Structure prediction request, 218 residues.
Amino acid sequence: MALSKQEIAQRIAQELQNDWYVNLGIGIPTLVANYVPKGIDVEFQSENGLLGMGPFPFEGEEDADMINAGKQTVTVLDGGSIFDSATSFAMIRGQHVQLTVLGAMEVAQNGDIANWKIPGKMVKGMGGAMDLVASAENIIVAMMHTNRQGASKLLKKCSLPLTGVACVKKIVTNLAVLEVTDKGFKLLERAPGVTVEEIKNATEGTLIIDGDIPEIDI
Prediction:
């Protein structure tokens, strides 16, 4: 059974380590803040100028002035701070963020990522994604394995304009957890009930399968 967006976020939350500063991109990545494991203390950074971002507020408790980079209302944890974009991007470009979680339209088997533009469609701009992928050393992508037409989004080579080159380290999709290696996508875990063959059929890029592949445990 394929993972839901919430379950993808839960699996990525397992990658969090104590005392990390973590940037969450828009889309599925924002959900990671809801699933921080017990005993793990992390600081979530939002590129619009927020450090110490908490989970989404309960209905009726939203503050319209407190938003993340995707303009969703969020909470701020005790000790959190608010600042301008220049300070925020100084943190990012200065490599003070230990993990960046991004969504993607496509990822290539060498770690290239395309997540900001579809040619011919209106786009607001690249946002902070290019700064993030250029500065971060640890990038995890949260995405669907295929598009709405059923075509793979894990490719030999990206067809859309690139956001970053050879920067993605790990990918968590609705079907699998994969590591980007110099030989292709290495399959680490599979969604419960999803077969290796199904993942292989949904992956255009080179898929490395080494031994028995365990199911994702969340």
Notes: The mean pLDDT is 92.
